[in-house]
Structure formats: C-alpha cells, structure tokens
Amino acid sequence: MQPDQIKTLANQLSDEIIAIRRTIHANPELSFREFKTAEFVESILDHWGIGHQRIVDTGITGVLEGARTGKYLVIRADLDALPINEKNSCDYKSKNPGVMHACGHDVHTAALLGAIKILSTLSNEWDGTIRFIFQPGEEMLPGGAQKILASGLLDHPEPDYIIAQHVYPELPAGFFGFREGAYMASTDEIYFEVHGIGGHGALPHKLIDPVLIASHLIVGLQQITSRRIPADIPAVLSFGKVDAPGSTNVIPASVKIEGTFRIMNEYWRKIALEEIRNIATGIVASMGGTLDCRIVPGYPSLANEPELTGRLRQKAVEFVGNENVEELPMRMTGEDFSRYAQRFPAVFYRLGTGGGQFSNPVHHPEFDVDETSLTHGMGMMAWLSASLMKGL
User: Fold this and answer.
1) Which domains does the chain have, with CATH numbers?
2) pLDDT tens sequence across 32-47
3) How large is the average pLDDT for residues 337-363?
4) Concatenated DSSP letters of 95-143
5) Tens digit of each residue's pLDDT (9 = 90 or more) over 294-314
6) Is the N or C terminus of the chain more exposed, i.e. has fewer CB atoms within 10 Å?
7) Measured between alpha carbons, how far is residue 12 from residues 6, 75, 118, 199, 372 in Å?
C-alpha cells in the first residue's frame, strides 16, 4: 500500500465529504442530543453498506475487518456542537439559533466517514480489526468517552491502539501536528459561595464583607500554582465569574465565584484540588465568613503514548512530507479523549484547517475551516490506520 493509493481515493471522495460536512455544520446539535446527526451518519454508512450500531443513545460504532487477523485499532470522532450563535454568512451556516459547530466536530465526523470509506475500499491491504466510534457529548461533563468506556464496548477485547484527529486553525490546511507525552490539561471546575453579613457600604465595621473576602480568596489561591506545584509542571487556576449582587453602597450577604483548575500531572492534580479547598476554607474563616465549596471533576490530562506517537509522526512525514508535520506545544485546554488515553496506547494529533480567511480560533462565532483540510484529514487518518494495521 502506497500513500498515492489513499490520496487518490481521498481526492475522489472530496466533494462528497465536503457536502457531508456542510450538512452537519448546518444542523448542529448540543451534547448528548445529537439524534439527527447520528441518523444522518447512519444513513451514509447504510448507503455505503458498512455495518454499525448505536451506542450510548446518540453514538455510533462499527468494525472493519482486514485481510487477516491482527491488531485491534479504534478511531474516534465526536458529534456534538457548542452553545454559540454562529456569525458566519456561508451557505451552510447553522440553522439552529444558539448552536454552532465552532470546535470542528463536523470536520472530525466527515473526515472519519471518509477514512472509513477508504479503509473499507482497501481492506485487502491491511490486517486486523478497526473499530470506528462517533462519540456524543465531548463538550459536556462527564463526557461521552466516559459513557462509552462504562458501556464495556472496549473491554473484551481491549484495543491495542486508539487515535483521534482534531482541527487546528493555528496550522494551515495540509499541515499536521504531533506531540509525544503530556499534551493537554485536566479540566476541573470550581464553584465557591462566600457567606458573610451584608449591609450598608458606609458601615463596614458592622458587617462581614464577602466581597472583600472573595477578593482575598481569588488572590490567595494563586499561591497554589506559584508556590505549591513544582515549577516544571504546567498549571493554571483562573476565575472567570464573580457574582456579588450588591451596589455602590450595598454590600451583599454572599458572593459566588466560578473558575477552572488545569494541570498536566494527575498526581499533582489530586494534591492541588485538596489544597484549593483547604486554603480557600482557611482564608474565608480567618476573615469571619463561611464557605460553600464545590469542585466538579473534569477530564483528566491527556498524554500521547510517546513511542506510538513517534511512529505515527514518521508515517505522517511519509504521507505529506517533513515540511508539513509540526511539533505541537503543550496546550492547557482539555479533551475527553484523555479518558481513552488513560487506558489504552493513544495518539491525539492535529489537522491544520487554517490559512487566509480561516484564522479564527475554535469556540469563536466566526470559526470556519479551509475545506481542503477534509481531503487531507480523511487521507491521513486512513493512512495512519492502515499503516498501524500493517505493523508500520
């Protein structure tokens, strides 16, 4: 099997896959509500004669068999969109107000469909079993990956490898990014409510000011990342919402604070979350207030299996050339693919979708992609999958 075989098939499928992506983009659905999206994907698989089944309500899975027995690979894409009102003016703009494929999951789904079609066509060229998963709910805790793992789908047998591809507007179409080892952060959510005694802003000596306490709390907790966690471990503690429902001369009785903690190390993640709770409780108590603290566990940190990532990167170079394969920097965003990576040898790599007018970041109301990236994306996923199943 040669790269040109797959490139030819990808080019032949290009118009069909772009049309599929546009249909998905125009009809986005939120996490765990992807019923019409799932039905659309199923209709394409049916048309191609590729077997499949539902999993965790709105997910889809199926298997492709190679020429001989061999390794077991899983390839995954996600189906859900975000609660964002799209501001693009393209013909395939979202028809659902307040819902948009602003993170590229429409691209992931369409490219995986293309890869499935290519791999099915070339099934005599590779060995083993390839399972595809169209996963719901990547954007909402606890995440579709956890539900799929809990279903037992990947228990008997366990896969030898699992891979996923994600859009990356920081690279132009035709480029790909890889990183060995730690790549993305955990994503825990923090909810505080500081209680004091409210009253007139001109009489603070008669009150316990939760606004002042909240201010000390936000500043004081920054010592977690600067003084408690080793300096060589990337970590971020950010508070994005403070709700103090008072006014210029009214101090409220309570203040709500919401934030996120992210880190690249699971051992220090556990320690830091305990420290956040203890330090926050201590600061508030020292100033006479009381604290309600709720920490919602998010996705774990994502680490790519180093040896496998290195092998796939080399295969990517063979497919598109060394000049089109980049080393990715660490990224403090999160991804529930990390749940798979905790259990199986995994590679989460990036598909360049940017360039020219397509420079907006993911989660932006004007995010869009250079659609030539779909041809590159389905070709690369098919090439990497077939290469793994041939033992590289």
Assistant:
1) 3-185+301-389 (3.40.630.10), 188-296 (3.30.70.360)
2) 999 999 999 999 999 9
3) 96
4) SSTT-B--SSHHHHHHHHHHHHHHHHHTGGGS-SEEEEEEES-TTSTT-
5) 999 999 999 999 999 999 999
6) C
7) 10, 22, 10, 71, 13
